[in-house]
């Protein structure tokens, strides 16, 4: 979070300064009734930073946010509390927990609503609901009324859906303003707005998620969206007097185990695609918050079209630390009892992560083999009915196979002689599905495991959620360890820390920690991401000692070396084990608001006759950028906000996450010294002559 303000300032050098952000439910309520609003979860501090920078906000509280986060921002424990297939529906248990969460969240937001003197002008209801198969209109009406009970007429409620009639059929909500989302494709602009107009007959055109980049999965090339297409599509939207929110303007990083996954085919587990740790997104501000070519082209267009661009700061790439190579020392194997931070759980049958109360990381499933289950002469087939998401098989701590999710329920041949005593299966949670019909993505093994004709059991399950690693400080390095194992190095920096990148080329797959902070999953053997972003705020100034710990699952390089470099590698080689379908970025449109909102002495309303937003009676258009506070270290929040402002935007959109609650906050920057009339663009905005 130290970077939040600097980021926001980079937005404001681009005029209509809004920001849009989600609120992530799982971040703020990791366990039922346990709330977190500290450090990177300090939502009120983030909202204040945006307001202090003079930006408006589009808030997206969800409760579902997608955002390529684990379980779409939902807390994992909902899988235990809500019946199957009842999330995002009118189910009483689901509504109970949403109501309870909103009772905590909404009072924190209330002072920042526009009608209360704040800067939140729009609040999103749900998130791309037209892309979800439930299509439960009773639920949408209930959720709308819940929002109204908190927001009232103090901000405008809106929805966002894709570019197509079908999305609006299920996503639009009566008396909620419907908007569309689509990417940088010159030919789609008019058509996508036609879909919006089919539902939202009057009012300003809005692209609530203008995709200027795209998400990336392991084993896929990192997507690139051409800057020319971004600018030309933007010109077409400005010519139609549309308001725009860039998704993403700054992506950031999925630190820890927060990245999600996608799955598009009901019958094929091979279509399970976990997302990278990096959320660079090919955004105008890159993962480290530096301006890119795309940033300056957007800024130039806004200047050329008479938008007022702030010159308070001139964003330039920040220096990075190139600290050299370090040798990791073997520390301890995951098989050692000292690594067991949670008491093992015993059961006749294997249990899933959620049933055991485990959210992230790994679980080791162990069972003792009987003589009847062994065969000295012939191989025997091991069949694991469910693998969510990767299984590493060990016989007496010797790795014999790795089975990815796509091969679950397919027999694997093993040689098991009479000397073998124990079968161990390490299951890795690679991220819960965050979008579409397959979101109820439980982890672990939760169906029978067979060896030949024998059902195996009983089982001892050893959870390794890796919530913290401070206990490793008491472990002395060893010469050799059995994988999977922890490795460690320590060093002193030559001067004050700079942002840097942990290069793990040569290692295979695992998790890295810098000074006890989980900087994310690494998987260079799959690609394309080869480095992990390490903010300067994670490092210790000299003469303090920095510590890097890595849990390596599969194989280590002979020299055990890692490096801290000044350049990211997000376009490394890719190991493609299966055919990857090309997917077109989502497009979208959403629901309709029919009534003018009256907000005490401050109003933000829709003029349906002239198809405009009116802020305190003046014509208003926003250019917003999505920025997720939960992907940015708190010391950087101000930096990122300022850079958004510096690009000429006047708002920010964000989610409010309680592990993925979507408060897409359009932080629309309110330029204190600029009158609304001077913000408008004569080239694009026509005067509306109202009829008597």
Automatic annotation (TrEMBL):
Keyword field contains Hydrolase: yes
Record-annotated Beta-galactosidase galactose-binding domain positions: 484-540
Glycoside hydrolase 35 catalytic domain span: 20-303, 612-655
Pfam (any one): BetaGal_gal-bd
Gene Ontology process terms (BP): carbohydrate metabolic process
GO terms, molecular function: hydrolase activity, hydrolyzing O-glycosyl compounds
Highest taxon in the source lineage: Eukaryota
Assigned keywords, A-Z: Glycosidase, Hydrolase
Stated family: Belongs to the glycosyl hydrolase 35 family.
Designated name of the protein: Beta-galactosidase-like
Domain (Beta-galactosidase 1-like first all-beta) ranges: 350-463
InterPro entries, per the entry: BetaGal1-like_ABD1 (IPR048912), BetaGal_gal-bd (IPR048913), Galactose-bd-like_sf (IPR008979), GH (IPR017853), Gly_Hdrlase_35_cat (IPR031330), Glycoside_Hdrlase_35 (IPR001944)
């Amino acid at each position: 979070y130290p970077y939040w303000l600097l980021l926001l300032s980079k937005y404001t050098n681009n005029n209509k300064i809004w920001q849009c952000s989600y609120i992530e439910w799982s971040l703020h309520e990791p366990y039922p009734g346990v709330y977190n609003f500290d450090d990177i979860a300090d939502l009120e501090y983030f909202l204040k930073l945006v307001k202090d920078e003079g930006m408006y906000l589009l808030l997206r509280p969800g409760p579902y946010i997608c955002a390529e986060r684990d379980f779409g921002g939902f807390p994992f424990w909902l899988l235990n509390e809500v019946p199957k297939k009842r999330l995002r529906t009118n189910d009483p248990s689901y509504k109970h927990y949403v109501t309870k969460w909103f009772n905590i969240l909404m009072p924190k937001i209330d002072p920042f609503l526009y009608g209360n003197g704040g800067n939140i002008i729009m609040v999103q209801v749900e998130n791309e609901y037209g892309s979800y198969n439930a299509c439960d209109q009773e639920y949408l009406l209930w959720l709308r009324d819940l929002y109204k009970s908190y927001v009232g007429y103090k901000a405008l409620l809106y929805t966002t859906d894709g570019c197509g009639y079908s999305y609006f059929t299920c996503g639009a909500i009566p008396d909620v303003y419907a908007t569309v989302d689509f990417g940088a494709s010159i030919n789609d602009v008019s058509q996508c707005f036609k879909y919006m107009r089919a539902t939202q007959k009057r009012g300003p055109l809005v692209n609530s998620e203008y995709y200027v980049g795209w998400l990336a999965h392991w084993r896929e090339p990192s997507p690139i969206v051409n800057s020319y297409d971004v600018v030309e599509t933007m010109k077409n939207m400005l010519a139609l007097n549309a308001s725009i929110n860039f998704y993403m303007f700054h992506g950031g990083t999925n630190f820890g185990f927060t990245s999600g996954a996608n799955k598009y085919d009901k019958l094929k587990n091979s279509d399970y695609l976990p997302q990278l740790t990096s959320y660079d997104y090919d955004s105008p501000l890159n993962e480290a918050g530096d301006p890119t070519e795309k940033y300056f082209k957007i800024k130039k267009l806004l200047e050329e079209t008479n938008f007022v661009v702030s010159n308070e700061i001139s964003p330039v790439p920040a220096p990075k630390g190139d600290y050299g190579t370090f040798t990791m020392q073997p520390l301890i194997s995951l098989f050692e009892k000292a690594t067991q931070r949670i008491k093992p759980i015993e059961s006749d049958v294997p249990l899933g992560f959620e049933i055991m109360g485990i959210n992230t990381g790994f679980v080791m499933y162990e069972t003792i083999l009987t003589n009847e289950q062994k065969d000295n002469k012939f191989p025997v087939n091991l069949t694991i009915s469910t693998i969510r998401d990767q299984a590493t098989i060990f016989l007496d701590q010797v790795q014999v196979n790795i089975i990815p999710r796509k091969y679950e329920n397919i027999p694997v041949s093993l040689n098991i002689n009479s000397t073998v005593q124990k079968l161990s299966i390490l299951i890795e949670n690679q991220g819960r599905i965050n979008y579409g019909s397959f979101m109820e993505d439980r982890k672990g093994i939760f169906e029978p495991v067979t060896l030949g004709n024998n059902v195996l059991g009983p089982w001892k399950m050893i959870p390794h959620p890796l919530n913290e690693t401070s206990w490793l400080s008491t472990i002395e390095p060893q010469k050799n360890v059995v994988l999977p194992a922890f490795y460690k190095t320590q060093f002193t920096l030559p001067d004050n820390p700079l942002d840097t990148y942990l290069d793990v080329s040569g290692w295979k797959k695992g998790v890295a920690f810098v000074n006890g902070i989980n900087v994310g999953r690494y998987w260079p053997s799959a690609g394309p991401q080869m480095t992990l972003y390490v903010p300067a705020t994670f490092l210790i100034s000299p003469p303090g000692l920095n510590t890097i710990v890595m849990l390596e699952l599969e194989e280590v390089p002979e020299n055990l070396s890692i490096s801290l470099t000044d350049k990211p590698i997000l376009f490394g080689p890719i190991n493609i084990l299966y055919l990857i379908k090309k997917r077109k970025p989502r497009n979208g449109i959403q629901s309709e608001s029919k009534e003018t909102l009256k907000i005490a002495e401050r109003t933000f309303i829709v003029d349906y006759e002239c198809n405009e937003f009116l802020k305190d009676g003046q014509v208003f258009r926003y250019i917003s950028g999505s920025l997720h506070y939960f992907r940015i270290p708190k010391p950087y929040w101000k930096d990122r906000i300022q850079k958004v402002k510096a690009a000429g935007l006047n708002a920010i959109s964000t989610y409010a996450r309680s592990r993925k609650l979507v408060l897409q906050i359009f932080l629309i920057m309110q330029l204190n010294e600029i009158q609304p009339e001077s913000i408008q663009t004569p080239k694009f905005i026509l005067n509306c002559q109202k009829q008597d």
